[in-house]
Amino acid sequence: MPARSWGVLAVLCGAIFLEGIDVAMLNVALPSIRADLGLSTGTLSGVVSAYVLGYGGFMLLGGRAADLLGRRRMFLLWLGVFLVFSGLGGFAGEGWILLVARFVTGVAAAFMTPAGLSLITTTFPEGRHRNRALLIYAGTAAGGFALGLVVGGLLTAFGWRWVFFAPVLMSAAILLAAIPLLKEPAAHRPPAGGFDVAGAISITGAMMLIVYGVVRLEQPADGWPLTVAVFAGGLALLAAFVAVERRSANPLVRLGLLRSGPLVRANLMAALLTASFFGFQFLITLYLQELRGWSTIQTGLALLAAAADVVLAPTLTPWLVNRYGNAKVVLTGLLSGLLAFALFLGVGLDWTYAAMLPSMLLIGLMFAFVYGPLTIVATDGIEEHEQGLAGGLINSSFQFGAALGLSVVTAVNVAALGAATTPEAGLTALRTALVVPVAATLLAAVIAVAGLLARTRTPAEDRVPVEA
């Protein structure tokens, strides 16, 4: 690839790495933030939920805005917003300021991320170059989540505010490099009709309510009526959105896009992938810190082996995809993850790190073989003017799955633990909750097998053209 193309890829990888490391660093710093600002449990949980609501709620709108308003313009604008509000979080002296900062930062990521992904899919021609670029991009994103735990632990040792200030410095460097390097794809055309305001309002409201409902799944039994009402409101708005899109002359989301079997399967597997990974990451953090007494830095270093995909994704995965195709590589990765989570079901209070290491390495293999190829499948064969929307869909699935996995494992862990406080009871509850990542990965593997069987009945390609 030309040197300029490598420069563009480096900038976009820097942005997705920033998004991943920002989330991971904050999770490590939460106890320190609570101690310094005196936040209640609800406010502390809201600091995480606010970002998820902004990200998940506006992701589809962000993807379509990139298609309609310009990918470079949306990327640069919202990267700047990300920078400003991350800095605001660092200066926060009260809980409500932190909540506002995290919500707007999530909204910024929701517009910035699909714009960045669509810049890759429209800058690199479909085929080997695009596949390699997407695999490097996906590996960088996963590496941000893994490395963020270590970096967050180190920064928190100096002060939790650096968890917010470090992304400001990174954002500024990326923005300065992006302005001269990024160009709007020549094929980009402004919208011929008006903007689908009704569709934008209904889908954003629906996504926010559904994501909020998922976050509330971990609430105790007396909170379930509100959770059910939130889900009902989200589904009602989703139905309204479908009705609006069927009648709109310029729909926000062309419903025909969802008739692609590979695209639907890729998005389902994406949600299950992150549900299993983030659920497991949460449980292993509880195990190492609360049951074993490890520090945040020790915990981050223990999970560092799971970042093996940073090396494997741009090196081994492209060769495997070119030789065997996306579907077989994805299935291999999911089976690796299934084995990793299953091995951890027998975890004990006296396990050495050597006993945990095989699971960590297999998780790195799972991400290397699944994250990038799923991104390829979800954007392959999609018309250029809908690449932002396709990027928004796959990123929404990743984000929704992460929220779902965290909420379900938390709910199962709390229910299994009950009022018990002994380490043995905590271990039993943790083993019970570990069934969730196992089940999610198993279901994803079943979908992958269904995709392989479907390909035997269609031309031997990894994609199916999407028609209106």
What are the main properties of this structure?
468 residues; mainly alpha; Growth Hormone, Chain: A; 16 helices; 0% strand
Describe this structure in words.
This protein has 16 helices and no strands. The C terminus is likely disordered. The longest helix is centred in the N-terminal third of the chain and has 35 residues. The protein has one domain: Up-down Bundle (Growth Hormone, Chain: A).
In short:
The chain has helices at 3-37, 41-69, 71-91, 95-123, 128-158, 162-181, 197-215, 224-247, 261-291, 296-303, 309-324, 326-343, 353-379, 387-417, 423-433, 435-456.
Helix content: over 70%
The appropriate CATH architecture is Up-down Bundle
Largest sheet: none
CATH top level assignment: Mainly Alpha
Class based on secondary structure composition and strand pairing = mainly alpha
Average residue pLDDT: 85
Write down how many β-strands occur, each being a DSSP E stretch of 2 or more residues.
0
Number of separate domains: 1
Secondary-structure map:
Blueprint: H1 3-37, H2 41-69, H3 71-91, H4 95-123, H5 128-158, H6 162-181, H7 197-215, H8 224-247, H9 261-291, H10 296-303, H11 309-324, H12 326-343, H13 353-379, H14 387-417, H15 423-433, H16 435-456
